Amino acid sequence: MSGHRRVKDISYDEDDLDYDYDEGDEYYEDEAGDDTLSPEDQEQMRVGTIKVREALGPSITATEKEIQDALWNYYYDVANSVKHIRSIKLPKQTKPAEQPKPTKSESRFDQAAKAAANAASASKKPGPSPDDIVINAQKKGTQTGKHDAKKKASATDMAKGETNDGLEKLSVKEIGSKNLDVVAEFEKSGLKNAANFVVIGHVDHGKSTLMGRLLYDLNVVDKRSIDRLQREADTIGKSSFALAWVMDQTSEERNRGVTVDIAMNHFETSKTRFTILDAPGHQDFVPNMIAGASQADFAVLVIDAGTNSFESGLKGQTKEHALLVRSLGVQRLVVAVNKMDAANWLSERFEEIKQQMSAFLTNAGFHNKNVAFIPCSGLTGDNVARSVPQGTAPWYDGPTLVSALEAAEPAARALTAPLRITIADIFRGGIVHPLSISGRLEAGTLQVGDVVHAAPAGELARVSGLEVDDEAVDWAVAGQIATVHLSDIDGAQHLRLGDVLCSPQHPVPTVTKFTAKILSFEHVLPMQVSVLRGRVDAAGHVEALVATLDKSSGAVVKRKPKIVQPGAVARVRIRLDKGIPLEDGARVVLRVEGKTVAAGLVEVVDEVKKKATGGES
Ligand SMILES: Nc1nc2c(ncn2[C@@H]2O[C@H](COP(=O)(O)OP(=O)(O)OP(=O)(O)O)[C@@H](O)[C@H]2O)c(=O)[nH]1
C-alpha cells in the first residue's frame, strides 16, 4: 500500500508568526519524541527496526536511534529507511557521484548555498542556513542591525538582481534548474490518464470501507495486511471497521471509528491512475472535507441504502457535501448507493434513492449526464471491482463502481498557465528534507531546481526535490498532487496550510476584499463569516449584498436585497480581517459557527490588494 496520512500539520496559531525559529532548537526533537508514539506506532517501530537491521546486514552498522529516526521520517517504510541509512553510511568516496552537476556556470545563489553547506559541514553544530550567511554579510555591509523577516534579502534575492518589484527579472533557469521543457516531457512520457477523486457523504455511510474494499480487490492491499487489520479491529471490538482502517490510519480515527482528516491513496486500472481523497463525513470535520474537494477532479458520493440511513443522511452531510463539491467546481459525480446488502439488494430501494437524489442534484447544478448511480456493497465487495453475483440483483446490468470511475473524462490540465499549488499539508523536520509541502498543481508545471514564490509570506524557495504518487520525479504538471521539498527559504516558519506556491513572475495577490457569486444554503445577510479556501479558514464579514441573480442566466434580479434566501444565487462583497492569497475564479465557502451558509466563485478581487509581496495594505 502506497498511501500515507499527512499528519504533520502545523496549527494556525497567531503565535506561529512570532515564533523565533532556529534550526538548533528543540523543534525537531519534539516531532520525533518517541514517548508520544501510540501502541500501534510502537509496534511498527519495533518490527521496522528489526527489518531494517536485517536488510542493512552486518556490513553497515547503524544505531537504534538512527534506524528509528529513519523509520519515523519515512512513515515506517522499511525500504526507504534502509536506502536512507545506506546513503549516510556509505564510504565518503562514493559521495561525489551524488552531487548535482550544474548544467551552467554557477550563479551567486548556488555559490552562496554551497559556501553555506561547506561551512555547515565543517562544523559539527547545525550552522546558519545559506540565506543566513548572505543575510549576515548584507547586514554587515548595510549596517542594518534589526531583524526583519519581511525586509531581509535572501540568497534568491541576490540571484534575481534589482528590479522594480523585485520579481520580473528572476530567471528560474539560471539558478540550478535542469532546464527541462516540462510540457514536452509530459507529452512524450505517455503518462496514463490521471484522476483525483474525493469520497464524500454522511458519517458512517461506508466511505472508508468502500475504498478499503476497492484497494483490496484491486490488489493494492494484500491479504496479510487485511488479516492484520482484522485482528487489530477485533482486539478493540470494532471488527466491522477492518476495511475502513486501510484508509483510516490514525489511532484517534480507529478508536473513534470516524475519519478525521483527508486520507490519500492510489490505485491504477488499465486506463487510469487514480488518487483517492477520502473525506471525513462528520460535520465537525467539514473544513477537512473542503480541503479534499478542492483537490479533486470529480467526487464519489457514498449513500447508505439501509432503512432510515439514507433519509437521515439527507438531513445531514449527504446534501451539504454534494452542494459543497458542486460549488467548489466539481461537475462529475458517481453516486455509490452503498450497503445494498443491508437493503437486500432491493431494486425498489435503489430506485427510490436514485429518484430523490437525482431531483436534488439537478437542483444543485449537476447535469444528469454527469451523474452515475451505482448500487454496491463495500462490505461484501459486490459491484465494487467485480459484478454482483448472479441471482443477487437480476434487475441491475450496469457498470461496477470501478468501471464507472474509469468513465471519467481526462481532467483538463492548465499546463501553460502560471504555477499554482495550494498547500494542503506541510511536513517539517525531515532528516533529508527539512521542509516539504504537498498539494495539487492547480495550474502550470514544476521541476526540481525551480524557484517558487510562497504567498502570502512573500518568500522565495527553491524546489530541491519532487515526489508524485510517493515516487521521486524530476517534474510535475497541473492536475497531479505532488510533494515538494523546499530549500533556501527565508521565514520557513511563516508557511501555512492554504498558502499558495506560485510562479515568481506571476505571484498570487494577497487580498482583503473581494466580490463573489454565491449559491446560498442558508439565509445570507451582512454578517460575520469564515471564508474557506482549500485549507485556509479566514475570518471576515459579508459587507454588502450587491444583487440577487437569476440562477441560469446570471442576470440581476434585484439590486441591494436585504437578505438572500436559501437556494438563491447572489453577488456579495466580502471583507477579510487579514489578507489571504486569492484570485478571480477561486472557489470559496462561507461558514458561520460551523455551518455552511454559502459557497461560490470569486469574481473580482480588490485591485489595491493585488500585490506580490503579501500582507494587507
Ligand atoms: N452492511 C454493511 N455495512 C457496511 C458497509 N460498508 C460499511 N459498513 C459499515 O458501516 C460502518 C461505518 O463504515 P465507515 O467505512 O467507517 O464509514 P465512513 O463513511 O467512512 O465513516 P466516516 O469517514 O467517519 O464518515 C462500519 O461499521 C462498516 O462496517 C456495507 O456495504 N454493508
Query: C-alpha Rg, in Å?
Result: 25 Å
Detail the poorly predicted runs. Answer: 1-35, 92-175, 607-617
Mean pLDDT: 74
How many distinct domains? 4
Report how far the terminal alpha carbons are from each other.
Answer: 48 Å
CATH fold name of the largest domain, please? Rossmann fold
Structural class call reads alpha+beta
- The count of β-strands is 23
Main beta sheet strand tally, sense and closure: 6 strands, mixed
The backbone outline, from C-alpha atoms, is globular
* Total count of helical runs of at least 4 residues: 17
CATH domain class name of the largest domain: Alpha Beta
Relative strand content = 15-25%
CATH superfamily of the largest domain: P-loop containing nucleotide triphosphate hydrolases
Present as ligands are:
guanosine-5'-triphosphate
Strand adjacency order, main sheet: 2-3-1-4-5-6
CATH architecture of the largest domain, by name, is 3-Layer(aba) Sandwich
| Fraction in helix | 25-40%
